[in-house]
Amino acid sequence: MMKGKSSDQAIAMTAANSPISPLESSPVDLETRKSTDHSLEVAVSHVLWWGMIIASSIVFAGGCIYIFRHGGEPASFRVFVGEPRELCSPWGAAKSALSGHGRGWIQVGIMLLVATPIIRVALSWFTFLRRQDWLYFAITSIVFGGLIYSFAGAYFQ
Amino acid sequence: MNIFEFSFLVWAGSFAAGFLGALTGLGGGVVIVPLLTSVFGVDIRYAIGASLISVIATSAGSAATYIRSGFANLRLGMFLEVATTLGSFVGATLATVVPVKALTVVLGTVLLYSAFFAQQSTPKEAELTEPGSLAERLQLDNCYPAPNGEGTIAYTVRSVPTGFSLMAVAGLLSGLLGIGSGSLKVLAMDRVMGLPFKVSTTTSNFTIGVTAAMSAGVYLSRGYVDPGLSMPVMLGVLMGAMVGARVLIGAKPEWLRWLFSIVLVLLAIKMIYNGLIT
Fold first, then answer.
1. Do the beta carbons of residue A109 and residue B220 sit within 8 Å?
2. DSSP, res B149
3. pLDDT of residue A7
4. Lower Cβ count inside 10 Å, N or C end of chain B?
């Protein structure tokens, strides 16, 4: 049913609505919105799935290196000391990984995993911009901006 | 205990948490922190960091499949993410200043609530209410595939401001405790905004990843995310959740839900006792 509506009609609808401010425009009917949103849903689903697969593969590989090298050492997480500075930022983690540290690789995988939902937001943000859906462009801008602000602290230290 | 044994045991515990979490629909995240602190003696800050990472992984994995099924409402999810990410950022910032004992007591309370929530799940059919003007202007009303596979069922969203505020609280708890806050998010969407059960669970799952990613930025930069601990937790919860989702699709045996609730209550008592007495 969703796919039944042709995308020509969907494009025509969006084009007709675009010059009017989104708050004043009459709401696009449900059927049309469903079919235009469907391609975004498919893209988002791919991003999430592959981000999760790639990140967990890297974490697993890093974990193997880590356990192989340090498996016999005593485990201690009882006292909080915080991570070394290099493992707190993506660049530091990448450097640690490139010098062959298992913990560095795990951290790279984790950073990639955290980046996955952010890429998802960026993708939606760009899609709404391209479709001139200003209401949802504004909504995703707030979320995207917040994420960038939160990560600025981690990335540039 | 050496690192190999520790990692293996943490992996097994996380697997069980992810498995039970998927079966009961509560998500494994809520038990990870108490499991790590009470059973494995991990500092709560490392536990929160590791739990948060596992929450992002599970959300990405399950949201990827749910979105394609047509139940998750993308626009509603994106709109509510404004509230959850804001709450989550505040929560994560608070977590770095709130005393560890207070965190423990808050977590214990959330566990008790989750145990209560697990006991009352009432999947209901779509209901058509008066279209709220706010929901209509925000293009939140949508439809989902009918159970018999023919056509779609339309639904409307009500009480948008109340739902939005509840989502901010859910985000705050998520950032503060490193959990997904799935139960609170479902409460906001299912009970307050009047969404069909399947729509609220799938949409809640969709927003969990971004909410957790927001606080992950704070936790990563403060050194709360330890790779050695996060690795077995993340892989364990993820695999447990995937197996759980595959083993029993839709079927949620009553005794499993009871088991999960009892585990939650025991952990809650332990957390509150630790926070108040010791």
1. no
2. S
3. 42
4. C
CA distance B227 to A103: 6
ipTM of the complex: 0.87
Distance from the Cα of A99 to chain B's closest Cα (Å) equals: 16
| Confidence (pLDDT) at A31 | 63
Q: Cβ contacts (< 8 Å) between B4 and chain A: which residues? A: 67, 71-72
Residue A2: its pLDDT value, please? Answer: 41
- A114-144 CB burial, b ≥16 within 10 A, e <16: bbbbbebbbbbbebbeebebbbbbebbbebb
Give B105 or B180, the one with higher predicted confidence. B105
For A26, residues 6+ apart whose C-beta sits below 8 A from its C-beta are: none
SS3 labels along A86-149: HHHCHHHHHHHHHCCCHHHHHHHHHHHHHHHHHHHHHHHHHHHHHCCCHHHHHHHHHHHHHHHH
The residue ranges of every structural domain in chain A are 38-70+88-157
First-to-final CA distance of chain B: 25
Among the partner-chain residues A70, A110, A124, the one whose CB lies closest to the CB of B225 is A110
**The pLDDT of residue B188 is above 50:** yes
Segment B38-61 shows an average pLDDT of: 90
